[in-house]
Amino acid sequence: MSEEFKRTLKRFFTNPSALIGVTILIFFIIIAIFAPWIAPPKIPVNKNLEKARNLLENYSEENKYLIINELKNFWDDTYFFAEDDYIELSNLMETIAKFHNKEVSSNELKAHIKELTDYYILNITYYEKFDEETNKVIKNLKKEYNKIEKKYKESVISLNLINELEKIDGEEFVKQAIKVVSRFDKNFHEAIGFNPYIMPNVTTTRTPIPPSKEHPFGIVNQKDIFYGVIWGTRTAFEIGLVVVAISTVIGLFIGSVAAYFGGWLEEVLMRITDIFMSIPFMLAAMVLTTILGLGIKNMMIALIVFGWMVTARLIRGNILQAKNEQYVMAAKALGVSDFFIIVKHILPNTIFPVLINATMRIGSMVITAAALSFLGLGAPQGYADWGSILSYSRDWIIGGTNPTQYWFTILYPGIAMILFVIGWNLLGDALRDVFDPRMRH
């Protein structure tokens, strides 16, 4: 370990901002890691699998066929129509292929779709929208077929697993049966779309309920605020880290290429950057999120698309100063490729301001994402996101007869968001103090 590195670490850990920021972030990291234990999700249970699991825990030879019977009942409930649906949709795919080859008319294809909607194999909207959005309907039908095909293949595998269990006994049966139950359990949760990030309803009343022993942060919109704040920590890290990491890489690439090669390429890239910067960030993110639709991933895409420009301009300015340094000239004289000059020589000496900026942008991205969710343009309904929780409080705080009555609907998610942002900002300030030569004593 070099002396310079030791001095840097010492400056970092003796910096009050660094200590406070790191402590706050470690606190949130611990919450994010242990969220399933701090706020356990209410995992749905299939009654057949639950009975099979209980019988396995108290296994005896008499229980063997009772266990197999429960697994068969699960298979019947889940996969009974899988083969028929697969055959029907396979026939539909053949009709679609003939439609593309102009062997059948659009009316014939539409009639085939109508037939499957009458059998409740397909949703009626495929038939209703066929004339207006033919290509889109066909595309979605192919996706539907892929899902049915996957379900059919899983049904065959599952049935074979049950049949194999009938051939074995004793400890081997218990061992294999546990694996089968676990596999079926996973299939069950996938089929119902279980997601631990969706906050469960814990009451039937929509009126906020103050904090209690069972729900320490209270309840809003039928949902437990404590559960949302805890799992929202994972959402905040996912949004902040992924968005900033990808947008920073994009900005580094565009800014580095523009600054290093210069000329017309720099002019084109920087004018594109200026165009993106001329669009108000929040407004642009709102418009693109509206186009892409609800969802954390779509919101992250919108934030990435309009979040790389500051990095591009920052690294461009740094590289313009560094590209004429002697070590760069020496590398060029030795015949080192432009790619390796940028990656190995220039970026390591110019990237620290970008990293500091990226650290501080993580907090701002979480704030922006929360604002989008608050406006109903980000996380889907019920998703564990601090902005979504705050949006629930809007109807009870604004225009209420007693605005302070439901203080808890804003306080807890608000505090979590503020502390998260402060933690990243303090860390960014500390890194700036440590790596800025003008701040060294």
What is the structural class? Answer: mainly alpha
- Cα-atom radius of gyration: 29 Å
Beta-strand segment tally: 2
What's the CATH topology label of the largest domain?
Answer: MetI-like fold
Give the N-terminus to C-terminus distance in angstroms.
Answer: 21 Å
Uncertain regions spanning at least 5 consecutive residues: none
* Order of helix and strand elements from N to C terminus: HHHHHHHHHHEEHHHHHHHHHH
* CATH level 1 name of the largest domain: Mainly Alpha
Count of DSSP H/I helices:
20
The percent range for helix content is: over 70%
CATH level-two architecture of the largest domain: Orthogonal Bundle
Topology overview:
Layout: H1 3-13, H2 16-33, H3 35-38, H4 47-57, H5 64-79, H6 82-100, H7 106-118, H8 124-128, H9 134-165, H10 170-192, E1 219-220, E2 223-224, H11 225-261, H12 263-278, H13 281-292, H14 296-305, H15 309-322, H16 326-333, H17 338-350, H18 352-374, H19 386-397, H20 408-435
Antiparallel strand pairs: 1-2
Helix pairs in contact: 2-11, 2-20, 4-5, 4-10, 5-9, 5-10, 6-7, 6-9, 9-10, 11-12, 11-14, 11-15, 11-18, 11-20, 12-15, 13-14, 15-17, 16-17, 18-19, 18-20, 19-20
Describe this structure in words.
The protein has 2 domains: 3-37 and 214-439, MetI-like (MetI-like fold, Orthogonal Bundle); 47-192. It is 74% helix and 1% strand. The protein has helices at residues 3-13, 16-33, 35-38, 47-57, 64-79, 82-100, 106-118, 124-128, 134-165, 170-192, 225-261, 263-278, 281-292, 296-305, 309-322, 326-333, 338-350, 352-374, 386-397, 408-435; strands at 219-220, 223-224. Helix 6 (82-100) runs antiparallel to helix 9 (134-165). The protein is globular, with a radius of gyration of 29 Å. 31% of the residues are buried. The model has no long low-confidence stretch (mean pLDDT 87).
